[in-house]
Amino acid sequence: MDADKAQITEVLVRYATGIDSKNWSLFRSCWADEVDLDYGELGTFTDPDALTELFAQIHNPMGPTYHRLSNFVIDVNGETATARTYVHAVLMVTPDDNAPWVDVVGHYDDELVRGPGGWRIRRRATNTPRMITGGGPAS
Questions:
Q1: Contact 24, 55 (CB under 8 A)
Q2: Listed residue (38, 3, 19) closest to 119, CA to CA
Q3: What topology is assigned to 3-134 in CATH?
Q4: In angstroms, rounded to a whole number, what is the distance separating the alpha carbons of residues 106 and 128?
Q5: pLDDT tens figures, 7-35
Q6: Tell me, what's the pLDDT at 137?
Q7: Which of 15, 38, 47, 107 could form a disulfide with 30 if both were Cys (CB 3.0 to 4.6 A apart)?
Q8: Exposed, middle or buried, 18 (CB in 10 Å: 0-12/13-18/19+)?
């Protein structure tokens, strides 16, 4: 894997790690300052700080979450790149209770830009064809 593709993969893994560790500065470090993000039913976002605050608000009350990324298909073209990444996320809705859970499968279509701080995501389209819940309400 060439250096650019390795660095882009690291950004995408950092995104998942930021969510799962509830490290919101790590999560925020994945985004360019100007973004165009489509998270489907969750909404669209142009402010990465607002997205970070929303993700913190949603995930902080939860128990463990596991965002697994795979099948990284990355195309670098100078200072920009595209990436399609499969995602499988399992979220335990309630701390210390593994009964209520959410299981999501899909993929991200991203556009990244190289800046002074390295590669960052500036555009994302989220496709989640399957989301199932179990064990109780996923609120």
A1: yes
A2: 3
A3: Nuclear Transport Factor 2; Chain: A, (3.10.450)
A4: 4
A5: 999 999 999 999 999 999 999 999 999 99
A6: 52
A7: 15
A8: buried
> Helices (H), strands (E): how many in the chain?
3, 6
Give me the half-sphere count of Cα atoms (radius 13 Å) on the Cβ side of residue 3.
3
The pLDDT-based confidence of 106 (bands split at 50, 70, 90) is very high
Domain map (residue ranges) of the chain:
3-134
Written as six digits, the tokens of 60 are 């902080």
Cα-Cα end-to-end distance for the chain: 41
Altogether, the residues listed in the chain come to a count of 139
